[in-house]
What does this fold into?
Amino acid sequence: MKYRLATKEDMSELAIMRYAQQCEKGVLVNVQREEFIDIVSNFYMCFSEKRWNCWVAVQGEKIISHIFIQTMERIPDFNRIDGKLGYVTNVYTVPEYRNKGIGSRLMKKVIEWSKVQGYEALIVWSAGKATPFYERFGFTNKNKIFELRF
It folds into this structure.
């Protein structure tokens, strides 16, 4: 098993995985499969401009798990000149590889990498059933995050 940052060559495979993830959630899609995959592939191809990174777990030549991180820069203040946060999202492991520790090892890599990158913190909006996964790594929900949805 290899754990590494995704490259542009991985984006098509990651887009197909995104489609599978959405289908698994039962999300209704207003576009056809191929159109959705093209839209997601195009989004992923602009990673560097959007400050996105993606860590992947690779078995042979196949990506079996991924975690996306977006860098969010903080406005400098007197206590912190160059602060940044990492927004963790789109965490997914192919169903037949779940409950084997792959996602956990991948999250450990993401956390180690994030510290080296100088992130102050990682944040995530967790779906209810995924909450224990994040809590195992020390994520807490004690900070009040306010949200305004439109």
Q: What stands out?
A: The longest helix spans residues 102-117.
